[in-house]
Design a protein that fits this description.
The chain is α+β, with helices and mostly antiparallel strands. The protein contains 2 helices and 5 strands, in the order ββαβββα.
Length: 111
Amino acid sequence: MGMGIPVITSGILRDHRVPKNEHLPGRSHARNRESTYNEDEIKRSLEILQQTFYIFNRKLKFSINREINRIVVKVIDGTTDKVIKEIPPDEIQRLVARIKETIGLLFDEKI
């Protein structure tokens, strides 16, 4: 199971699958065989997103929550540097982590 990274192609925002063991951008890693986009294309798409939000006095901060293996995007006010919105919300991240923990207690192995 991978995690989705938003990718803009021809003005359309799509979901891009990244494997669980994928390293952070900028670090060397093996190419995902399922991927149709390379790391440079993803970085460029993220830069376009960040530039677009900058026009509206907003910043985007991308990070990876390793506990739930998902990308987290924070929309930050450009003037006050306060987080306006977090996607997915912190409550959902904690809920997913607890569900994964509970599943891990119930089942010992994957089939």
